[in-house]
Design brief:
This protein is α/β, with parallel strands linked by helices. It contains 7 helices and 5 strands; from the N terminus they run ααβαβαβαβαβα. It has one domain: Rossmann fold, CATH 3.40.50.
């Protein structure tokens, strides 16, 4: 529920299955001035979900890279620094919880915004594990395409505004 997500520092939720309007809404909040700079990393073991997200994001001008689990996602982040990560929690090999923990252990990656997309009802222990580690939790199936895109655009903008200028 939204209260639980806000307690984790989340500004938005996406519940699986979500519609593309919900995704756009969230992404619009994190819009980059130049969307081609760094890609959005989509991490989900469901190929259809990754494809829907890819098409939605690319249709809005985003570059997208994909991973089917946390192990693949860490390999991608080593090569391409994403602007933002859309992350499923329940995956084989390495789930989203472990991925977040391993990602945040690397100083260069600690500020990459993460939006959790899940169909899972999070327990208090789940919430405690994610507290302070993710930007948002989105229940799959609740967010519209436009709302998700708005959220992503806002996260990216706030990340850029917080960056020290050189």
């Amino acid at each position: 529920n939204e209260d639980m997500g806000f307690s984790l520092g989340a500004a938005a939720f996406l519940v699986k299955p979500f519609d593309s309007d919900a995704l756009v809404d969230v992404l619009e909040q994190y819009k980059q001035k130049e969307r081609g700079e760094n890609p959005v990393l989509v991490v989900d073991d469901d190929a259809l979900t990754r494809e829907v997200l890819r098409r939605t994001l690319e249709g809005e001008g985003w570059r997208v890279v994909e991973a089917a689990n946390g192990v693949e996602a860490l390999d991608v982040v080593k090569v391409v620094m994403p602007s933002l990560i859309l992350l499923d929690l329940m995956m084989p090999e390495m789930d989203g919880f472990r991925f977040v923990s391993e990602l945040r252990a690397v100083a260069a990656w600690k500020d990459i915004p993460i939006i959790i997309m899940t169909a899972k009802d999070l327990t208090q222990a789940d919430r405690d594990a994610l507290n302070g580690q993710v930007a948002q939790i989105a229940q799959k199936g609740v967010y519209s395409r436009d709302r998700l895109l708005s959220e992503i655009d806002l996260l990216i903008k706030s990340k850029k505004d917080d960056s020290p200028s050189h």
